Amino acid sequence: MKQSLFLTGLVAAALSTGVAASGSPVVKPRATTTVTPITVTGNAFYQGSDRFYIRGVDYQPGGGTGVESDPIANATACARDIPYFTKLGINTIRVYAVDNSKNHDTCMNALAEAGIYLVLDTDTSKYSLNRDDPKESYNSVYLQSVFATVDAFANYTNTLAFLSGNEVINDVNNTNCAPYVKAVVRDMKQYIGDRGYRSIPVGYSAADVSQNQEILADYLNCGTDDQRSDFYAINDYSWCDPSSFTTSGWDTLVENYTGYGIPLFMSEYGCITNNRTFEEVSALYNTEMTGVFSGGLVYEYSEEGNGYGLVTIDGDTVTPNADFTYLSSAYAAQTNPSGDGGASSTSAATTCPTESSEWDVANDDLPAIPSAAEKYMSTGAGTGPGLDGAGSQDAGTADNESAGTASAGSGTVTETSSASSGTSTKKSAGAAIAPVDMKALGAFMVVVVSMLGGMALL
């Protein structure tokens, strides 16, 4: 999108902004097409008074090229793909990376017109937590980009939810990242509230790591309301057709998460070890699962060289693959349960997990928001760095990193780090791979271990 159009969008947004009595901005939607915003009650999503189940696909055309691009800023591609979303019968797409310096009105309005919501990752490959050095990468440069993405999408009524991260913790050995993942959730929730936006759910997408996925779920749902995630999402590839509710282990998933106090859904699913006929759809939207799960997103819309694509895209031409037909039929054949589908109306916090050989988190303390990022709560984040910015993962300095821990709900530093020397110690940025790239690299391994297809590094 040209800069003049982006500036026009900023002017329009400014003209639609008022000020509440508290001094916080009250931002009106700039989208011309509106849908009913999705809300959270207990462990489920709702569209008005009706239970809402995510029926969707993961959407990042070009993700297999290794070069990030923003599909929501590409109005032409968006218009090309929406008719296929409609044919699939979906109501949600997940996008892994967007350019927060661009305007997204055209595509978001068109999606809303089609009744389609957006689950959006706020990270990009350059602006994300670095699992090899979470302390340095949790800095004000990173948070400015995250908050700018919130600004870019908070005014659309079909923005369903924000994801604070995707598979940051992807092994038994890097659970030390958890406090930083949770701090980002806290910061995003505070930013949304302080900037006067509607209450947009914020959560996290977890890797299928048996040793810590459920522990992480408890951790993200423990503590005070300002610290807790609004939902939890998992990437799961354990159902490989032909299979069943019990053979796949999904019955164990339901058992393990029964009583979990916030919405839970599958942010990626769709094993490709055998032909995908999407038998799991009949279970996912059945009462055997809907008391715990709120649907899910199939990986993925476009073929990116990894075998997961529902369609093949060649320029302006979209060719549905066999998987597309199977998924469309599966969605059409399985209606949602009547009523609330067994959902709970209460949202109970869990007990924070204790340190163990599988959980490298000593206590419930969270890092305080970096003081250099606190100003964004009142002033706004400003223009985002986009996809071509310098990046944030190794941008940490003594001036822009967290200086200690924060009390719940206060944002106040209560313990100062002894490493506050005023000088910057640069470290390796580690792996910074866009979510869809790992599947492209690992496609040849799925025949041996299908679940590796679900691993997606940031």
TrEMBL record:
Q: What membrane topology does the annotation report for this chain?
A: Lipid-anchor; GPI-anchor
Q: What is this protein called?
A: 1,3-beta-glucanosyltransferase
Tell me which Gene3D superfamilies the record gives: Glycosidases (3.20.20.80)
The keyword Lipoprotein belongs to this UniProt entry's keyword annotation = yes
Q: What is its EC number?
A: 2.4.1.-
Q: Keywords of this protein's UniProt record, alphabetized?
A: Glycoprotein, GPI-anchor, Hydrolase, Lipoprotein, Membrane, Signal, Transferase
Q: List, alphabetically, the Pfam families matched.
A: Glyco_hydro_72
Source organism, top-level taxon: Eukaryota
Which spans does this entry mark as compositional bias, Low complexity?
401-428
The UniProt entry's sequence similarity note says: Belongs to the glycosyl hydrolase 72 family.
Q: Where in this protein does the record put region Disordered?
A: 336-362, 377-428
Q: Where in the cell is it found?
A: Cell membrane
PANTHER family per the record?
Answer: 1,3-BETA-GLUCANOSYLTRANSFERASE GAS1 (PTHR31468), 1,3-BETA-GLUCANOSYLTRANSFERASE GAS5 (PTHR31468:SF5)
Any one GO cellular component localisation term in the record: plasma membrane
